[in-house]
Write a structure and sequence with these properties.
Blueprint: H1 3-8, H2 11-37, H3 53-110, H4 117-148, E1 157-160, H5 161-178, E2 182-187, E3 194-197, H6 199-215, E4 221-229, E5 234-240, H7 248-252, H8 263-269, H9 275-285, E6 289-294, E7 300-307, E8 345-349, H10 353-365, E9 369-373, H11 376-385, E10 390-394, H12 402-411, E11 418-422, H13 427-436, E12 440-443, H14 448-458, H15 471-500, H16 504-520, H17 524-538, H18 545-560
Parallel strand pairs: 2-4, 8-9, 8-10, 10-11, 11-12
Antiparallel strand pairs: 1-3, 4-5, 5-7, 6-7
Helix pairs in contact: 2-3, 3-4, 5-6, 6-9, 11-12, 15-16, 15-18, 16-17, 17-18
């Protein structure tokens, strides 16, 4: 039986076949023993070239024992694999059905006219929370598929360490707070400001560690220790908890797919049993190493060590814990989304009726008018016939998909912004969408905050929020908005001076203040551009900083009503010194 043929069989068929072969081997063994008793010499592969019955019996016994052991071992492995996958499928059914029960139940509750407003708000939060959990389960399954088919793509870009840890804190601290656990990050200084890695996959590993630490802890603290080894130029993240802990035997099975510490763990705590297996595979792809130490009842330590990825000079190292304060994120909670005030008409090309309704609602909340089409062909006809502030292009649609529609629009001279809507956001997919002419990509399911950030980036016409009906308040707010506009040229002049003199601390202060103030007055585009400059400053390098400052300056001049070329104060030239 060939290996290919074995793989084509179901697991139950394979086990049954191995058991039949094992019985045949044992039957053959009995026949040979009977023939030896009659001093007959067998022919074929068992012949040993000796007429001594004792020696012949010993060698045949050894040969048959080896084959029987091999078959028995293969059968046991197949049975174990079958049981593991059966348990996994049963567990997946539970992990998917449980949040779906809450989602469907609480959605029905929202339609009950007798339910109070507070109860409806709580129901909505429950739906969101369970929906996010369901998305995590699906992502685990998809990641496993990509790993087993070697389709995982890793990018290597510069990642600011303070921003990375801020994101981890934002996502993990809220979960810890729900269980009355203390969540902290200990920065063992000095630390590098940046590392060269894949930020999405690195955060996936660390969040898996944190999620497990929180899941298996009922009291105490969950802590991330961050250390840098200057000799090896490696960064270590260690997640420590005071949870249930594990035995040495449980640790041995920890990184196997479809497996948790034991069956009772799955029943009590849930989970796919894939997270740590996926984390180890991703760590290998990042050039990292995962280690575990634990004792039953005394908690666990999961550490990830990986290369920084580029040389870091001593003067670049972060030596003050305040370097991380600017990136401190609030606990992750379901909060109200800040909706930008935009103007214009958007073409939404999406074939799903529910998605049409949802995204159209988002767009109208931002003050935009919406035209909706259900396929790529109709999208091309509409976009060529009318001017749009933005085209939202779903990739998978009937008649003509989003890629073909975008290529046709670009070939016919359409120059407006086009944003792809898709669930396929691997690097190769995103690169393909950009090659066909898309200016940006939004992943499904759509994150509302990210959705509005993309709108603000591509839709012209950002404006302050509408004024209140109260006359005095409206007049005061209008006056303050005018003062903000009037003060923009001076702010831009100060930014230009800070860049020209390489006063990076002053530049950080100016950009941070502008980012917050502009957002308060409704100028979302200024806030977005300022945030990009602030994030670039945090990396400690000047490459590309001038372009970001120039984009911020140009847009701010438009808001302030300063014609291009009128103000000498906003021309930017950067010295070669490294910020920070």
């Amino acid at each position: 039986m060939s290996h290919t043929h074995e793989k084509a069989l179901s697991m139950d068929q394979l086990v049954e076949m191995l058991e039949r072969r094992l019985l045949l081997e044992r039957a053959e063994r009995k026949k040979l023993q009977a023939r030896l008793a009659l001093r007959e010499t067998p022919s074929g592969e068992g012949r040993v070239g000796s007429d001594d019955p004792g020696e012949l019996a010993g060698r045949l016994e050894e040969l048959i024992e080896q084959r029987t052991h091999a078959l028995s071992h293969a059968r046991d492995e197949a049975v174990a694999a079958s049981q593991a996958k059966s348990s996994f499928l049963a567990n997946m059914s539970h992990e998917i059905r449980t949040p779906l029960t809450s989602i469907i139940g609480f959605a029905e509750l929202l339609l009950d006219p007798q339910v109070t407003a507070d109860a409806k708000a709580d129901a909505a939060k429950t739906i969101i929370r369970n929906g996010r959990h369901l998305l995590e389960v699906i992502n685990d399954i998809l990641d496993l598929s990509k790993i087993e088919t070697r389709q995982v793509e890793i990018e290597r870009i510069e990642v600011g360490l303070p921003a990375l840890l801020g994101d981890i804190e934002a996502l993990a601290a809220g979960r810890a707070q729900e269980k009355s656990l203390l969540f902290t990050i200990a920065h063992h200084l000095p630390l590098p400001p940046v590392l060269l890695t894949d930020p999405v996959r690195l955060k996936q590993i660390l969040l898996n560690f944190c999620s497990n630490a929180i899941k298996f802890s009922s009291k105490g603290e969950v802590r991330i220790d961050v250390r840098h080894d200057a000799a090896s130029q490696r960064l270590t993240f260690e997640v420590v908890d005071a949870g249930i802990g594990m035995s040495a035997r449980q640790i041995e099975r920890l990184f196997e797919p479809f497996v948790q510490a034991d069956v009772s763990t799955t029943r009590r705590y849930g989970g796919t049993g894939l997270g740590l297996y996926i984390s180890r595979q991703l760590a290998d792809l990042l050039g990292g190493e995962i280690r575990v130490s634990s004792q039953p009842g005394r908690g666990s330590r999961f550490s990830l060590s990986l290369p920084v990825g580029r040389p870091i000079r001593a003067m670049e190292m972060l030596t003050d814990s305040r370097d991380f304060e600017a990136f401190h994120r609030p606990d992750f909670v379901i909060t109200e989304i800040e909706v930008p005030e935009l103007s214009g008409r958007v073409l939404l090309a999406e074939d799903g009726v529910d998605n049409q309704r949802l995204l159209a609602t988002y767009l109208r909340q931002a003050g935009l008018e919406v035209d909706i089409v259900g396929n790529g062909s109709a999208a091309v006809d509409r976009a060529m016939a009318q001017s749009y502030a933005l085209v939202l292009m779903d990739i998978q649609m009937p008649l003509m998909d989003g890629v073909a529609a975008t290529e046709m629009l670009r070939a016919n001279g359409y120059r407006g912004p086009i944003v792809a809507l898709t669930a396929n956001v691997m690097q190769s997919d995103v690169a393909r969408y950009r090659r066909c002419g898309c200016d940006d990509v939004l992943a499904k399911p759509v994150d509302r905050a990210q959705f509005y950030a993309v709108l603000a980036r591509h839709v012209d016409g950002a404006a302050p929020p509408p004024l209140a009906t109260d006359g005095g308040y409206a007049q005061e707010l209008a006056a303050l908005t005018d003062e903000f506009r009037a003060g923009l040229p001076a702010t831009l002049h100060a930014i230009a001076c800070a860049t020209q003199t390489a006063d990076w601390e002053r530049l950080k202060q100016l950009i941070h203040t502008l980012k917050g103030t502009a957002g308060s007055y409704g100028f979302a585009r200024i806030t977005t551009l300022a945030a990009e400059v602030e994030g670039h400053l945090a990396t400690g390098r000047t490459e590309g900083l001038m372009d970001r400052c120039a984009a911020l300056t140009e847009h701010s001049r438009e808001i302030a009503g300063v014609p291009a070329g009128r103000s000498h104060a906003v021309h930017l030239t950067l010295r070669s010194d490294t910020p920070g």
